[in-house]
């Protein structure tokens, strides 16, 4: 609902859903499927072709419950090849419909009739239409279709670097030509059931798929855990904006950060 159909089908977003989650249920932290689905893919399910950038992306989110407790999520989004012939055929059909609509709109903007279509579209419109169709083309016999997919870790504390390293290693194991030393289920079971939460003031070293991972938890008299790199804050906000935000914090002003 509310989708912009002027965009090409590849640029549109589609509904996503949770394929699986483990464990199935935790009494003290019930799994909120709708919230996790929305926060893992805030822009919806997306498609790409071999011509598009498909580098994996990592982002995080926080779920705050009514009692003020927080749960942290860390998400790695990647693209995998679509193997369903039905989905590929549907995408090509969407493109054919989209290009027909775009062709009609170019024709309407040129005030042409069906009888004099070829002679009425000027050279500029014809060139722009050709570029549009090249950019918006999808040929099922020529192009490879990819769809977005996420793997997510939900944790009680924001161990961003540890979760990031584990998810990247898990992704490499999934996409590698050589299988990992152990089945993937072994690594997932290990981090869910066998890796303990480090006590306050202590660090913990555990093994991921390929390399060891270290996470550290501050003690009671230390600053709270902030595992997010400060460099990214400077890169995103800039020095002047960050100084202004910091000044507003010191003056106890209300701050609203808005982004896409």
Automatic annotation (TrEMBL):
PROSITE patterns associated with the record: DENN (PS50211)
Limits of the UDENN domain: 1-260
Name the record gives this protein: DEN5B protein
SMART domains the record matches: DENN, uDENN
GO molecular function: guanyl-nucleotide exchange factor activity; small GTPase binding
Domain of life: Eukaryota
InterPro entries in UniProt: cDENN_dom (IPR001194), DEN5A/B (IPR047278), DENN_C (IPR043153), Tripartite_DENN (IPR037516), uDENN_dom (IPR005113)
Keywords: Guanine-nucleotide releasing factor
């Amino acid at each position: 609902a509310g989708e912009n159909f002027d965009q090409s089908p590849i640029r549109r977003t589609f509904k996503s859903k949770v394929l699986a989650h483990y464990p199935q249920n935790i009494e003290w932290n019930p799994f909120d499927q709708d919230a996790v689905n929305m926060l893992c893919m805030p822009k919806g399910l997306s498609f790409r072709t071999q011509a598009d950038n498909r580098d994996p992306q990592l982002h995080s989110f926080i779920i705050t419950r009514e009692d003020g407790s927080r749960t942290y999520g860390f998400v790695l989004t990647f693209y995998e090849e679509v193997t369903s012939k039905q989905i590929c055929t549907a995408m090509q059909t969407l493109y054919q419909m989209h290009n027909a609509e775009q062709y009609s709109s170019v024709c309407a903007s040129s005030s042409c009739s069906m009888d004099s279509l070829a002679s009425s579209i000027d050279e500029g419109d014809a060139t722009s239409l050709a570029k549009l169709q090249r950019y918006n083309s999808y040929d099922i016999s020529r192009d490879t279709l990819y769809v977005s997919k996420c793997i997510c870790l939900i944790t009680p504390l924001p161990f961003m670097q540890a979760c990031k390293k584990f998810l990247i290693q898990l992704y490499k194991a999934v996409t590698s030509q050589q299988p990992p030393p152990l089945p993937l289920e072994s690594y997932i079971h290990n981090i869910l059931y066998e890796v303990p939460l480090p006590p306050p003031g202590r660090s913990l070293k555990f093994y991921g798929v390929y390399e060891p991972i270290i996470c550290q938890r501050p003690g009671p008299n230390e600053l709270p855990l902030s595992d997010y790199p400060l460099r990214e804050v400077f890169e995103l906000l800039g020095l002047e904006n960050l100084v202004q935000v910091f000044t507003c914090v010191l003056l106890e002003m209300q701050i609203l950060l808005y982004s896409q």
